[in-house]
Amino acid sequence: MSSSTAGRGDSRPQKGGGGGRGRGKKDSVLELAKVRRFGLLIDSNVRVKCLGGRELRGALRGYDELVNLVLDDCDEFLRDPNDPEQITSQTRRLGLVVIRGTQVSLVSPEEGTEEIANPFLGGGEEEEEAEE
Q: For residue 21, which phi and psi values (nearest 5 degrees)?
């Protein structure tokens, strides 16, 4: 047993050891702290899209290196009961929320953005009909 595991009773590597490959601490997939513009979003309204389709809107109060977000005055956009893929303009008030970074797929400022038509949705059906 090596001196690094003596007294612990297991063979786990030391924390931060990196397996002896010379690597340091793992970097976050998305390092928001290095993006200067993201810091400008603090205290402004943002829209967050999560894995699974949930969409939220609120004032960004904070974040960390794992992209965990804190939103204040948060609203969740409700889905259409007849079409679960469709988001409606109806909202549900959530208040102060913490969103785990593993669930975040998109963060965008609320102001200065607009939804555009998806160019990939309309063309596929017409091409299939023309082939028949």
A: -95, 5
Q: What length does the chain have?
A: 132
For 35, how many CA atoms within 13 A lie in the half-sphere containing its CB? 15
Share of the chain above pLDDT 70, in %: 63
What does 79-98 look like in DSSP terms, one character per residue? EPSS-TT-EEEEEEEEEEEE
Which pLDDT value is given to residue 116? 83
Q: Hey, which residues does 110 pair with through a beta bridge? A: none
The pTM for the full model equals 0.59
Residue carrying structure tokens 């979003």: 41
Asked if pLDDT for residue 40 goes beyond 80, the answer is no
Residue 60 · residue 46 · CB < 8 Å:
yes
Cα separation values, 116 from 3, 17, 56, 113, Å: 61, 47, 18, 9
